[in-house]
Amino acid sequence: MSEPRANVSSPLQAAIVRVTPFEQNCTLIWDEATKVGAVIDPGGDLDRIEAAIKETGMTVEKILLTHGHIDHAGGAAELRDRLDVKIEGPHKNDSILLDALEKQGEMYGFSGVRNVVPDRWLDEGETVTVAGHTFEIFHCPGHSPGSVVFFNRPQRFALVGDVIFRGSIGRTDFPYGDHEALISAIKTKLLPLGDDVAFICGHGSPSQFGHERTSNPFLV
Length: 220
Prior knowledge:
By secondary structure, the chain is of the alpha+beta class. The protein has helices at residues 46-56, 70-73, 76-83, 95-98, 101-108, 179-190, 209-215, and strands spanning 12-19, 24-31, 36-40, 59-64, 86-88, 127-130, 133-139, 148-152, 157-161, 164-165, 168-169, 198-201, 207-208. The strands form three sheets. The protein has a six-stranded mixed sheet with strand order 6-7-8-9-12-13. It has a five-stranded mixed sheet with strand order 1-2-3-4-5, covered by helices on one side. The protein starts with 11 loop residues before the first strand and ends in a 5-residue tail after the last helix.
């Protein structure tokens, strides 16, 4: 079952499905009128994700990936086949991670993990659409070299993956991590979008950029 819907203004709706032992926030977003939407970061537990899709009544038109770590992308290839949709994102700099998903799966004891190549890589300044709603792309490396953030300007809403969390930021002690690059991306690309911007992150509870700007110990 999906968790209570995030506080996203109509017509876009969102629901979080916690997946994998890492409690990753796989997010469903959809247009309330058309019931068309997308799955963001299907890291695993695909039966749970598909049950949540059925519960919302949505039709999935695509899969979006914020970055290439196993808890976010481990189930993407299989779900693409099940739903017969395309995968968009992350930035091509995460290809080194997506090409090693099967090895990551063996390391963490995840079954059914497959390497994946997105149907479309994303870059800074590009956009993607979900049910006709436009999301701007911000390349925010640091947690991973190809992490991207999806931002819907009209509804003041972002999907940030593991770039920033409520009260924390993405880990940078993994291979290819870069703490300075991550802090720079948050401060120069995300926070300027506005204090009122709400976001769903890859783990934990949603927040707003304004709350993090004034209280997040990594940013204050």
